[in-house]
Amino acid sequence: MSSLHSISESATLARRLGVISGTVLVTAWFCCLILIRAACGRLRRGQVDEYARQWSRLLLRLVRMRLDVQGGLPDFNDGRRYIILCNHSSHYDIPATFASLPGSIRMLAKKELFAIPLFGAALRSGEFPSIDRRNHQQAVKDLQQAQRMLESGIVLWAAPEGTRSPDGQLQPFKKGCFHLALETNAVIVPLAIRGIHAVLPARSWRMNLGLPVELRVGEPLDASRYSVEQLPELMNETRARLQAMLDQPVEQAQDMADPQLGLAG
């Protein structure tokens, strides 16, 4: 990928319908696999990890995303607790992360997603934590559950902005995931994804195919080195690292793509 401003193809109505239909079918298929295994008592965390990666790669293939991964991949098996904090400007942020990074990654999902038939049940079976953004007391309980998942070895993906950015620019950060990082002495991995907001802009059905997207893994921050009183400093440092990666000039990337997936990294 030489430029994030390469010419892309604006999807026709027929193509958009094809992507949407394919996304629904692929998602339903993997949800069924998870639920069938769960019902038989045969669902294991590693199997959910593999399903999540297969699902993600198929979704990225549907929009022909050209994904370039830069930066060192963390070792999530070193016994530490990890939280991935990512800028959020597209529904495709999460599939891009699952397709690119190792470990048992689970997104901190908004409560509304668990009300979706089939999908919500699969999320619960797959150990995806929920967060009720409209109920503070419930949100506190939800974060306590997320803490237990972190302690069991799950790598938590969260968006400190709380919602998708309409233009790819960083929005103000919320404190919840930083409190969680402090309480669990977690390692924060900043993750910056550039160019992905144009694939499917927030609050829009306009879709662009074949776009180049960069996923940059930043230098980790050890939250155990910060006190509760230093929470603003931890937030500011995380934001500074994310912003720096978003502002970096586009680099010429070697094509290390999986020929079957069209993913670089």
TrEMBL record:
It comes from the Bacteria. Pfam families: Acyltransferase (PF01553). GO terms for molecular function: acyltransferase activity. Keywords: Acyltransferase, Membrane, Transferase, Transmembrane, Transmembrane helix. Pathway: Lipid metabolism. The keyword Lyase does not apply. Residues 82-196 form the Phospholipid/glycerol acyltransferase domain. The chain crosses the membrane at residues 17-36. This is 1-acyl-sn-glycerol-3-phosphate acyltransferase. It comes from Serpens gallinarum.
